[in-house]
Specification:
The chain is an alpha/beta fold and 353 residues long. The protein has 2 domains: 234 residues, Type I PLP-dependent aspartate aminotransferase-like (Major domain) (Aspartate Aminotransferase, domain 2); 91 residues, Aspartate Aminotransferase, domain 1 (Alpha-Beta Complex), CATH 3.90.1150.10. The protein contains 14 helices and 11 strands. Strands 1-7-6-5-4-2-3 form a 7-stranded mixed β-sheet, with helices on both faces. It has a 4-stranded antiparallel β-sheet with strand order 8-9-11-10. Helix 1 runs antiparallel to helix 11. The chain is globular, with a radius of gyration of 21 Å. It starts with 24 loop residues before the first helix and ends with a helix.
C-alpha cells in the first residue's frame, strides 16, 4: 500500500481556532511513550491511575477524573450526572452547550437548556434568576443546574469573587454548578490562580477539563469536585459512547499537560499572543475591539469585504457576519511573527478599502 504524502506549509498559521493547532511535542512524546507493551483497558491502566493522582493534586483529594473523547461528550455527561430526567440547566445564550453542540445536551442528554442573555458571555446572579423559578410545577422543567464557561465563549473571564457569588446563589436554591473548562488553562493563566483555586475553591461541583485547545491530540476529562456525580458518570460515560478502551492514550496526554507546568506555559503563551494581536488591532484604524482581550481570543468589528479579502491569506471565522464581527484565536504555537504578519496583512487590506 502506498501512503500519500500531504504537503503543507507548517510556517503558515491561521487565527480561526485553537483547535487548528498541532500537537505539542511533549504531548506527542507522551503518546509514543505510552505505546509500549500492554495495559489494562477501559481505564484500569497505570497512566489513568497516575492521572487521578495528578488531578487530586490540582483539585483536592476527593476530586476524580473520567477521561472522555471530546468536549461535547464531557459537557453532556457531566450535566447528566447532576440532573434527574426532568432537570434543566441555566446557561448563557452564548454558551457552547447552547450554540455549538447541535442540540446534544437536549437530544442526547435529555435535559432542557434555559438560556439567558448576557452582555459579555458571563452569567450573573441576576441573569440566573430570570430562569431560576418554577420548582414543584410539573409543567416546567426543573432548573437544577447552572453551567458557566471559563474563559467564556467571548474570551472574557469570571473573577473568583464572581464564581463564588454564582455557586453560593445556585447552591442556596438547590442547584449545582458545572464549569465548561475547554479553555480553563487560559483563564487560570490570565488570572494568576491555580486550577483548584478557581474551581474547588469557589464551589464548582463538576468540571469539563479541556485539553484539545491547549495542545493535546484528542480527549478531555470530567472532573468531579463534590460528592454525588462520580458514581453515575461511571455508567453515563459508557452509555454516551465516551468510554475509551485504550484510555491510556487519553490519560497520557492529559498527564503530559497537567502533570507538569505545560498547561500553564502553553496557555500563558497563547494569551500573550492574543494580547499582542489585540494591541495591534487597537492601534489600527478601521477595526475595533468588541470585548476586552482577557484570554486567547480577540473579537472585533471589521467590514465584511475586508474580512473576506484577509481570509484569502489567513483562516478565521465570522462571529456575526450581519454585524460585521469576527473572532481571532491564538494557540500554544502562535508566534510573534504570525501575529505581526497578520496585522500587516490586516492593515494592507484596510488600506485598499
Amino acid at each position: 500500500m502506498t501512503v500519500t504524502s500531504i504537503n503543507h506549509d507548517t510556517s503558515v498559521r491561521g487565527f480561526a481556532s485553537d483547535n487548528y493547532s498541532g500537537i505539542h511535542p511533549e504531548v506527542l512524546a507522551a503518546i509514543t511513550s505510552a505505546n509500549g507493551g500492554h495495559q489494562v483497558a477501559y481505564g484500569e491502566d497505570e497512566y489513568t491511575a497516575e492521572l487521578g493522582r495528578v488531578i487530586a493534586g490540582h483539585f483536592g483529594e476527593t476530586a476524580a477524573i473520567f477521561p472522555v473523547f471530546n468536549g461535547t461528550g464531557a459537557n453532556v455527561t457531566a450535566l447528566q450526572s447532576l440532573l434527574p430526567r426532568w432537570g434543566a440547566v441555566i446557561c448563557a445564550q452564548s454558551a457552547h452547550i447552547n450554540v455549538d453542540e447541535n442540540g446534544a445536551p437536549e437530544r442526547i442528554g435529555g435535559m432542557k437548556l434555559l438560556s439567558v442573555p448576557t452582555t459579555d458571555g458571563k452569567l450573573t446572579v441576576e441573569a440566573i434568576n430570570k430562569e431560576a423559578w418554577g420548582w414543584g410545577d410539573e409543567h416546567r422543567a426543573q432548573p437544577l443546574a447552572v453551567s458557566l464557561t471559563q474563559s467564556t465563549e467571548l474570551g472574557t473571564l469570571y473573577t473568583l469573587e464572581e464564581l463564588r457569588a454564582i455557586t453560593e446563589h445556585a447552591h442556596s436554591l438547590g442547584m449545582r454548578v458545572h464549569m465548561d473548562g475547554a479553555r480553563i488553562s487560559n483563564a487560570a493563566a490570565a488570572l494568576g490562580v491555580g486550577l483548584g483555586e478557581m474551581t474547588t475553591g469557589t464551589g464548582i461541583d463538576i468540571l469539563s477539563l479541556g485539553g484539545t485547545k491547549n495542545g493535546i491530540m484528542f480527549g478531555e476529562g470530567i472532573v468531579t469536585l463534590s460528592p454525588g456525580p462520580a458514581e453515575s458518570i461511571k455508567y453515563l460515560r459508557k452509555m454516551n459512547m465516551q468510554l475509551a478502551s485504550k484510555m491510556r492514550f487519553i490519560s497520557a496526554q492529559l498527564l503530559a499537560l497537567y502533570g507538569t507546568d505545560l498547561w500553564l506555559d502553553s496557555a500563558a503563551h497563547a494569551n500573550a499572543m492574543a494580547a499582542r494581536l489585540s494591541a495591534g488591532v487597537q492601534a489600527t484604524d478601521g477595526v475595533e475591539l468588541l470585548y476586552p482581550t482577557q484570554s486567547n481570543g480577540v473579537f472585533a468589528t471589521l467590514p465584511n469585504n475586508v474580512a473576506d479579502a484577509l481570509r484569502e491569506r489567513f483562516r478565521f471565522y465570522d462571529w456575526d457576519r450581519a454585524a460585521q464581527q469576527v473572532r481571532w484565536m491564538c494557540s500554544f504555537d502562535t508566534t510573534e511573527a504570525d501575529v505581526d504578519a497578520f496585522l500587516a496583512a490586516l492593515r494592507e487590506e484596510l488600506g485598499r478599502n
